[in-house]
Amino acid sequence: MSKRFKGDHSTVVVAVAPDKHAANLVQAAASLCKRTGMRLRLVQVAEYWAGRSWPREITLEGPLAEAITAVEDESLRTAQAHLRKLAESVPREVTVEINAIAGFPAEGVIADAVANKAAIIFTGASKGSHRFVPKGLSTALTLMSDSPVPVIVLQEGCVTDFSKRDFGVLLADDLSDHSESAVMTGYDFAAALGGTSLQHLHVNGLTEESLKISLEAASAASHAGSMRGLTGKEIFAMAMNALDQKMKARAPGRRLLLEAAGGKYRSEIVTGDVADELQVVASRSAVDMLIFGRHRSFRRKPFLIGQLPFYAMLTPSRPIMVVPSEI
User: What distance lies between CA 195 and its chain's CA centroid?
Assistant: First the structure.
């Protein structure tokens, strides 16, 4: 079994913000660490003085520089006090570390995660995190876009307990090469939790009805009749069979490891609108978490992950994990 999500050699970094959602975020991450034995590391970044409008590479001197330094030092002390308070709420079974640094939030968290070889980054997200913020992208979106390790995102109001018995995971797979790391990560994560149910899902946006309409239009335009004498229903069945074979070929060894860890999995292919079908299946199966692969740029709206906009997957009912394709 992959050990990246198991044992105290692995670390979970929590991007702590000075807001009321921080305590809930830390408790969720702590429940994951308690179940897997991973270490917990709370990181809060005291942002550079918000009033500065000059490039960061410019070096200031004199009274203004001293004043800014004093403000940043006080911000660091406040962040350290906040982290100590949060650490006190973590169960004793969980090893916890804290780190307050000055800088830019997402950059600081990623740097800390890389330096400590973190397996996962936890971050919170407000209901408007899918939009632009004055300085660019929100911290949550920047982490999802740039992090070299998987990122778990909890929207404000989402209460998640990873120690829950029969924890359910929905792995959304678009069957592209870019999503292979997400598939392996999903199975590894579920195996590390143990006793977990994983639903491996592919949503085919091409429905039988839409294929039939397309074939009829093509046939009318070409005057060539149907494709090799096949009906739309037969062609659709062939396409679904090809998708089914591709699903079965995804991470076969990881499935055995999941079962060895007391977990179970089920593969399913559905057709229809990607966002709608994901929500339908997630609600029907009562899953506790969604996993997606990351393989498109976030530097443009609507911040697509595969074919799904970020705002369409972020819900207050369950967290999501976004996995980079490079790992």
Answer: 21
Range in 80-84, 151-155, 206-210 the model is least confident about = 206-210
Could you give all domains of the chain from N- to C-terminal order, each with its CATH number?
11-51+61-202+247-324 (3.40.50.12370)
Give the closest residue to 200 by CA, choosing from 168, 228, 176, 170: 170
Residue indicated by tokens 């982290």: 83
Whether residue 262 is predicted with pLDDT greater than 60 in this model: the reply is yes
CB atoms within 10 A of CB 98: 19
pLDDT tens digits along 45-67: 987 654 444 555 555 566 655 65
Amino acid (1-letter code) at residue 49: W
pTM: 0.85
pLDDT score for 101: 92
- In angstroms, rounded to a whole number, what is the distance separating the alpha carbons of residues 94 and 35? 9
CB 46 within 8 A of CB 81: no
Distance CA 109, CA 139 (A): 10
- pLDDT higher than threshold 80 for residue 215: no
CB neighbourhood size of 246 (10 A)? 13
Q: Look at residues 170, 173, 167, 157 and name the one whose alpha carbon lies nearest to residue 192.
A: 167
Query: C-alpha dihedral over 173, 176, 181, 186, to 10 degrees?
Result: 10
Please tell me the predicted confidence (pLDDT) of residue 212.
61
Note the residue count of the chain.
327
Q: Give the integer Cα–Cα distance in Å for 294 and 155.
A: 18
Closest CA to 171 of 190, 150, 151, 157: 190
**CB-based contacts of 19, cutoff 8 Å, min separation 6:** 124
Residues in a beta bridge with 102? 46
| Dihedral (CA of 79, 108, 187, 305) sign | positive
User: Coil, helix or strand for 261?
Assistant: coil
Burial class (CB in 10 A: 0-12, 13-18, 19+), 154: buried
CA dist., res. 138 & res. 305, Å (int): 16
The two three-digit tokens of residue 101, written as one number: 């640094």
